[in-house]
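dumping this here before i forget
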Amino acid sequence: MKKLLMTILFSLLITVNLFAQETESSNLDGIMITPIFDTSDGIETKIKYKDGFEESISTDYVALFVNGSIIREANIITKENRTLLPVRKICECLGCEVKWLEETGEIEINNDKNTVKLKAGSRKAVVNGEEIMLDAVPEIHNGFTYVPVRFLAEVFNYKVDYCDGVNLETTHIFPRIPQVIISSYDNYRAISKDEAVETVKEQLIKAYELTYGEYKPWTGNEVYENNGDDIRKAVFNLEVTDENDRFYTIPVVFDFWVDKYTGEVYVFYNGMTMTVYKFDPESKGALSFAG
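structure:
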């Protein structure tokens, strides 16, 4: 009995440690990215969020992801091959405090480690009391101060990736959309690829049994007999084929995304309309992957 209790306790400790410091869930659940063809220009694309908020995106749109969540109305500017971000929006997304110093016309950015002062129109910035030169001048656009994304990354030690939406060999979250990905997970533990595969396996088997009955592992050389055999075969072949800062990609029928920091599982459909939704193995039609 004592041995059994120790085993249960050990298992609980492993489970608690696995997601002991979870970050917030990504906001990609329920997102739809849809081309609309009845505009004067022929095509307009819209992003629709789960709460119903819609954002029209133009041909020069660049998506901004911070720790796996897409930032609404990020209004990124690309100028002379440099990516500029609005200071207040990006810093607040990253948990920094932003102040306007009216006396000097400067913007002050603070987190728990660094203090930065900069001014629109000046390449000089002060980082922790030391003056440095920026590689691009902060600019005012539509009433907001913009700074180079690389500057923020270097000062605050964030990881930054860029993908043009076409070269998918580079780190990306969505295909077909240019994007900047900013991330910092210093205080969180990512699950391993094996753990991600096991998570998807467990959820698929649960969905299978609720839909088709008793699950029997695929042996590798069977002939398809019913609609559930494609799921059995998928479980047999599960593997991580891609990853970014936040998700592992595991192809099933559609791509399954496993959140590295929460263990949540999402389904990504890459059709004319791109959609993402959380996978619920207990929902009716969980294994219906209609395009």
